[in-house]
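Morning, I've got a small favour to ask if you have a moment. I owe you a coffee for this, so here goes:

…
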Amino acid sequence: MVPVDAKPTTRRRAIAGATIRMHPETAARLARGDTPKGEVLATARIAGIMAAKRTPELIPLCHGIALTHVSIDLAVDEPAAAVHVTATAEALDRTGVEMEAMVAVNVACLTLYDMLKGIDRAMVITDIRLIEKSGGRSGHFRREEAEGKPEGRPAREDAPQTGERSGGAASTPGGGRGTEERQGVVPHGGAAGDQGMAAVQGRIRAEPLDADAIAAEVAHAGAGAVATFLGLVRDHNEGRTVTLLEYEAYASMAEAELARILAELPAEIPGVRVAAAHRVGALKVGDAAVICAASAPHRGEAFKACRLLIDRIKERLPIWKREHGPQGPYWVGWEDARCSPEGHGHAHGHGHEHGHEHGHGHGHAHGQGSGGPDE
């Protein structure tokens, strides 16, 4: 431990912040107090205060401090589908209380996750930061001064960010009103045009999907087969009439995870190229919600890669859908999230293996090729 006995005793104060992002319906239920585990915000507040007092037991070589004040503020931000957590720690001591404030916001967010994970396991804790500190020889720190910009609510994850990189693939904002699009190309061995070269591309977008264009991305002279999968919106699901499907996503998370999936498959199946795109927004019956394509020298590898691609998209992408029909809107895959047209919650114990089901419709796989006798 660093000796602090030579430091003067001064009034120390630190403010830390963090954000936990969640599905919009989770934020709405939290705001109206309709959650299965009771007083979520009050419990998270107590957990944060208790954690601040136990900081020396959690952080190695951290000095014990006699805190004089700890407070936790939790603001439910329904438009951003998030809870913004702020912790303030104060003490009259020889060393600072930054770690106490940081530990407090972390544990408060973890408690929120624990109490809400039954209805939303895709929540993300982010933007953990020191906002302000005062006292001691280092003086006064304010994040807005250090960064040259105001300290406010963190930007929403689905806001366009120029030059963002996710999953190792270069990303650029997509064009078009209401569109969130990223495109990445990850080379995997060989030069362009070589049979051993595998390029991967992925998109999360609001515009209608073009199956021919996505298939063309993976086609090349060395491909003897191209397999495609189309997930379409159908007019029914588990006895309910469906007139419209509404998809929502954590855009940056979905893009990063899709980039990882697309990079995995060429490494696992040599010679394949894969591409995929997923819609967000409102889709009518018959619209394509997701399209996958895979090419390979032979049909077996193409079919295998295409099947693995859609399976991993279904299992891993943070994308949700809400059905619309005569019975009112319904979040698919939520255990306790049926909403009437008036927006009131009703418990129906409804669940799926995954939190969302892509390919809410019909899958098509087309293989064509001339790669040899086994085709």
User: Anything to note?
Assistant: Confidence is low (pLDDT under 50) at residues 149-201, 335-375. The radius of gyration is 25 Å. The CA atoms of residues 122 and 318 lie 6 Å apart.
